[in-house]
Amino acid sequence: MATDDLIHLARTHLASARNVTILTGAGISADSGVPTFRGVDGLWRNFRAEDLATPEAFERDPRLVWEWYNWRRELIATKQPNPAHIALVELERRAHDTFWLITQNVDGLHRTAGSQRLSEIHGNIWKVRCTGCGVITENREIPLPVLPTCRLCQALLRPYIVWFGESLREEDLRRCDQALQGCDLFLVIGTSGVVYPAAGFASVAKDVGALVIEINLESTPQSDLVDLSLQGRAKDLVPLLL
Ligand code: BJW
Ligand code: ZN
């Protein structure tokens, strides 16, 4: 089918869906200039996310991990939501019965755009958690001290991010499950589909009978199971679905 026909079909399905759940990944923010994890621009000083985004890496070398986050905070602070983020806000506004946006992104751009029915399942780069007393605070300081510490107990702060090997928050998992079990349309935008549990969401949605639509620049491990696969940039395609 030609791309225009696929877009038309996807728009028709979205207009008639009553319960919409959406999953986004780094590809949607790539159009705002935020580097993806697994693209050619995903490396920082030759480290992969898998080398830095673990509790073991932080324990071994918190300075290095904080340098990475400081670099990313400085970069993300200069970025704005793009037409794809904004189209999802409009989709939420027009939602029939239920709407839930699940993002793996930690950049906060969905919230900046105005999305409200949202789970940031991997955390948020603008929050920190104390490794001592556990308090979670918003922190937009740029740059942070090399090793930032808690004002209350002076222990080391860590990014409020879910690292490899760590469990997602119970409340987020519950919300995602609810949004997946009840959806009749599941839209997946700009994720490589390799990091679990999010990588399994499309198949959960299929199992409950939802129509699954994927938007990505390339095919992913989930492309074979989705009903409609749209290839292209999120910022171009998502607004066309409204
Ligand atoms: C565009 C575009 C444009 C570009 N338009 N598209 C089951 C099986 C196997 C392993 C596991 C499993 N369950 C758990 C695991 C272990 C692990 C895991 O999944 N490992 C895999 C690598 C195999 N998962 C976990 O540890 C998770 N915890 C958990 O499940 O706890 C229970 C448990 C623990 C241990 C064992 C078993 C159970 C936690 C995962 C947390 C991941 N966090 C990260 C790092 C955060 C760091 C940070 O941001 O600071 O989150 S990993 C990194 O990848 C980041 C992202 O959110 C995540 C997903 O990446 P995403 O968004 O897909 O980005 P890319 O770069 O990969 O892809 C971009 C895509 O966009 C590409 O497809 C492009 O084509 C596309 N694109 N431009 C449209 N303009
Ligand atoms: Zn503390």
Output the keywords.
binds ligand BJW; 35% helix; SIR2/SIRT2 'Small Domain'; 242 residues; three-stranded antiparallel β-sheet; Rossmann fold; single chain; binds zinc ion; alpha/beta; six-stranded parallel β-sheet
**Ligands, ions, cofactors:** ligand BJW, zinc ion
Cα separation of the termini: 20 Å
N-to-C series of helices and strands: HEHHHHHEHEEEEHEHEEH
Structural class by helix and strand composition: alpha/beta
What is the rounded Rg? 18 Å
Sheet-strand content, in percent, reads 15-25%
Most strands sheet: 6 strands, parallel
Mean pLDDT: 96
CATH homologous superfamily annotation of the largest domain: TPP-binding domain
- Largest beta sheet: what is the strand line-up? 3-2-1-7-8-9
Q: At the first level of CATH, what is the class of the largest domain? A: Alpha Beta
Low confidence ranges: none
Q: Can I get a quick summary?
A:
The chain has 242 residues and is an alpha/beta fold.
Q: How would you describe the overall organization of this protein?
A:
This protein is α/β, with parallel strands linked by helices and 242 residues long. The chain contains 10 helices and 9 strands. The chain has a 6-stranded parallel β-sheet, sandwiched between helices. It is globular, with a radius of gyration of 18 Å. It binds ligand BJW and zinc ion. Zinc ion (ZN) is lined by residues 130, 132-133, 135, 150, 152-153, 155.
Q: What is the strand and helix layout of this fold?
A:
Layout: H1 3-16, E1 19-24, H2 26-30, H3 49-52, H4 55-60, H5 62-76, H6 83-94, E2 98-103, H7 109-113, E3 118-120, E4 123-130, E5 136-138, E6 157-161, H8 170-181, E7 185-189, H9 201-207, E8 211-216, E9 228-231, H10 234-237
Parallel strand pairs: 1-2, 1-7, 2-3, 7-8, 8-9
Antiparallel strand pairs: 4-5, 4-6
